[in-house]
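Everyone, describe these structure tokens:
***
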Amino acid sequence: MSVARRRSKEAALTRNAGFGLIELVVTISIVAILAAIAFPSFAYVLRSNRVSAAANDLLSAFNLARNEAITRSRGVTICAADTRSGVPDACGTAGDWKHGWIVFVDDKVSGDPDSPIPSANILRSWVGNERNSLAPASDVAFIRFKARGEAQLTGDMTLTLKPSDACTNKQQRTILVTPLGRSSSTAVDCE
């Protein structure tokens, strides 16, 4: 094969490398269609994971409070608190569960937790996710665990956790705390 023919063949191969305009437009169109199909599913997964993470955080807080009460042989309380701007020194109202909660050593036997709460008594705080809705079934702002691990409740306490927007299928969680101090979470259909 002559040198001239080989060079023209190599030149033809280099000119044909890459994408043409039509191929590029078709590829971009396919990617756009796939993204449009996948986006609603992705948003659903993000909402579900956000609710699941908040439920796990709340259950770990209840378990921490109960275990610390048993370990320390003292009262330990978990209460709703607005923790968005740092750890507060007092409990909030029942409407503050969605903003966060704190666990602290509390030796009171009845009534509301001490206000203010000494910072040395605070064991841990959690910040709530503003994209979730978390509300107790009754007007309960705190739960105290006694030295033997029982919750100071007259009956079961339930909290409802769900996405603030577009709750679908089983994205809602019902969190239950019994007077024995046990806590659990159940996925339920959105209301």
In short: Strands lie at 76-80, 100-105, 122-127, 132-136, 142-145, 157-163, 172-177, 183-188. The chain has a mean pLDDT of 87.
